[in-house]
Amino acid sequence: MTIQKFDSEPQERRRYFRNYILPLILMPIVLLVFNWLLFRNHAPPGEQPQVQQEAAVEAVVPTSVPQRAFDGTVLEGGRRLVDAAGGFGDGSWQFITGAWRFEGDSLIQSQPDGFDHVANYVEPFRNYVLSAQLRHTQGIGGGVVFNMQSRDAFARSHMVRFKEDNTVMFWGFFDENNAFNGQGFAEMSIAEGELYKLDVHVKDSTYDIYLNDSLVLADNPLIYDQGYVGVTSSVSEVQFEDIQVYPLGGDAIGIAPEANDLLENVEAISGDWLFEGGQITQTNPDGFDFLTGLNLFAQNYSLSTTIDFSESDTAQDIGGGFIFHMPDRNSKNSAQLIRFMDGGRSILWGRYDAEANFSGEGSLEVPYDENGLQQLRINVIGDKYDIFVNDKLIVGDISLNANEGWIGLVSFSGPVTFTDVNLSLEGAN
């Protein structure tokens, strides 16, 4: 009998390769394929907005505009927002993200990676045309933002831009959580390096989109009816060679907000409110907190009004002021309250709980003029607010339930008249 020696070495090598070496080779390949499948059409909210496929429109627009350039024309009543000679440069713009710089009368975003790089202008507008002439020097992902509720964040704003893969122009809005909500798109592709003109006509409750002066979309619903304007770039280098704001009818741009403009969109929640001649009066004499909403949702702002108690019965506890940071625009549940008492001779402040039960947090007597007029202002910044009466600080750093919400007027009994209702979206200076 011949005994053969069993050589186990090749088998051991094969087993070692199969169990240890091969997985190390295959694992990166498997992970690469898995990540490509998982993330090829996905990015975090606020980075790569997903447009609604069912909302496509057929765009009839020129695909090329060779030799287009700004000819120096500014519509009467309008304003050129980047103008080296006019001083509209560094001091007029704020850069949220991206690598922005001014070159003469142009504003350039030169960071080629990353989504939603934004620059915005110092002043808010309402009822206007925002016009931008832009050139993509690398990638295709430029556009405009408008009706921004804050200069510091993309949350609560509208956007129209080209998609970075050069397949569509899309539009929609960012909600309070910075999640993008696509409202539609138009299939198109544009040429890198050529100059395009993108306009949005922002009206009371809708807006229109134009590309190279051709209508893309009419009467798309607005979620936010006024605010700051700016430009944006995603995965692209973009040069904005002209940015202007024109009046939408009339002789001048609508600067938002103006005195008494906030009273044009009031919505009575309780009580008997009468709007007339730039003022609003609550006439019900019963002793309740009657509310009317201003249809404004804001975060950091300064809110002021003049309240007339001259027609009130001084024998009653008559009051008026603000209800704010309401989670629901039609309910005082979980809202903050600041109002005068005793016909304007003192103030109280506090908050409602989730069941609309009020808890007072403080009260003070305030200076009073026998003409019955008292000016009330609150500055809301982050999770605190300050109270001013006739431009004098009464109390500061009062804690808030939340850092944003709906805003309204409140009247305890009546008649109480509000005039000069003003709001600055940026809070106290």
How are the strands of the biggest sheet laid out side by side? 1-11-10-9-8-15-6-3
Instruction: State the CATH architecture of the largest domain.
Output: Sandwich
Task: Indicate the overall shape.
Answer: globular
Rg estimate, integer Å: 29 Å
Structural class: mainly beta
**Name of the top-level CATH class of the largest domain:** Mainly Beta
CATH superfamily of the largest domain: Exo-inulinase, domain 1
Helix content: under 10%
Count of separate structural domains: 2
**How many helices in DSSP terms?**
1
In total, how many beta strands?
Answer: 30
Oligomer: single chain
CATH topology call of the largest domain: Jelly Rolls
Largest sheet: 8 strands, mixed
Q: Classify the beta-strand content into a percent band.
A: over 45%
Which residue ranges are poorly predicted, with pLDDT under 50 across at least 5 consecutive positions?
1-8, 34-48, 50-54, 62-70
Distance between the termini: 104 Å
Mean pLDDT metric: 80
Protein described:
This protein has 429 residues and is mainly β. The protein folds into two domains: 53-247, Jelly Rolls, CATH 2.60.120; 261-424, Jelly Rolls (Sandwich), CATH 2.60.120. It is 7% helix and 47% strand. The protein is built from one helix and 30 strands. The strands form four sheets. It has an eight-stranded mixed beta sheet with strand order 1-11-10-9-8-15-6-3, with no helix packed on it. The radius of gyration is 29 Å and the shape is globular. The relative contact order is 0.13.
